[in-house]
């Protein structure tokens, strides 16, 4: 998932970019409100993390203009201003959460994941299809070639992530954060085991393989479109 961090304090911005990248996110970082607005309007982000006090435009003005442009991307404010009026102002402008500095990175990461889950809680598509594989997100079932595939809850979530990100190589760190809600531990083989089990159910009985391994990089799901 792609995040924008707008923070005018270089050390804090680099710290956030590095930490979120290690958690599996694709992170852009800017240092002014003007740049934040330009990125937010020209790029597609899953979450904006905005400092309130920035050169050019403050975070409130950035949020106001983003909402005026019709973008409903989740927004998390970071600020040293802890007054109730400030928090109310941000929320009234359309912010989704508000974190007071100084904060623990673990709390920021938890709030980011909560906002991303909340943003994805109502899927825009009820049915996902790639080749002869179909996922019904409402009925929570997967079918390939007319055959029902029995999946565990984690396998279903893993398959949904791979299908939603069709054609993208997803690193293990991203899979761990999105499916297991945890930081990736290189000493564990939980991701490899889960992918192997999912592959056995999705691919083993079919000539066309959909789940692919990019050695040293991660996993991808893709296949030919149905004719």
From TrEMBL:
Q: What positions does the DNA-binding region cover?
A: 125-223
Domain OmpR/PhoB-type stretches: 125-223
Response regulatory domain ranges (all copies): 2-116
One Pfam family of this chain: Trans_reg_C
Record's keyword annotation contains Transmembrane: no
**Tagged with keyword Transcription regulation:** yes
Q: Please list the residues that carry the modification 4-aspartylphosphate.
A: 51
Q: Which UniProt keywords apply?
A: DNA-binding, Phosphoprotein, Transcription, Transcription regulation, Two-component regulatory system
Q: Mind telling me which InterPro entries this protein's record contains? A: CheY-like_superfamily (IPR011006), CusR-like (IPR006291), OmpR/PhoB-type_DNA-bd (IPR001867), Sig_transdc_resp-reg_receiver (IPR001789), WalR-like (IPR039420), WH-like_DNA-bd_sf (IPR036388)
**Official protein name in the record:** Heavy metal response regulator transcription factor
């Amino acid at each position: 998932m792609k995040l924008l961090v707008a923070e005018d304090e270089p050390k804090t911005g680099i710290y956030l970019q590095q930490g979120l990248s290690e958690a599996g996110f694709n992170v852009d970082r800017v240092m002014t409100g003007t740049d934040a607005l330009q990125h937010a309007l020209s790029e597609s982000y899953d979450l904006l993390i905005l400092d309130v006090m920035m050169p050019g435009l403050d975070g409130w003005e950035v949020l106001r203009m983003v909402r005026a442009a019709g973008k409903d991307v989740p927004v998390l404010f970071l600020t040293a201003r802890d007054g109730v009026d400030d928090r109310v102002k941000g929320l009234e402008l359309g912010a989704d959460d508000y974190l007071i500095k100084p904060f623990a990175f673990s709390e920021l990461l938890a709030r980011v994941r909560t906002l991303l889950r909340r943003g994805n809680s109502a899927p825009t598509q009820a049915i996902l299809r790639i080749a002869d594989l179909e996922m019904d997100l409402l009925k929570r079932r997967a079918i390939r070639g007319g055959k029902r595939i029995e999946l565990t809850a984690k396998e279903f979530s893993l398959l949904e992530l791979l299908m939603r990100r069709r054609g993208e190589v997803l690193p293990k760190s991203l899979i761990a954060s999105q499916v297991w809600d945890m930081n990736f531990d290189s000493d564990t083989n939980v991701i490899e085991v889960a992918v192997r089990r999912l592959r056995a159910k999705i691919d083993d009985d079919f000539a066309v393989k959909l789940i692919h391994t990019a050695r040293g990089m991660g996993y991808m799901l893709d296949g030919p479109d149905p004719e």
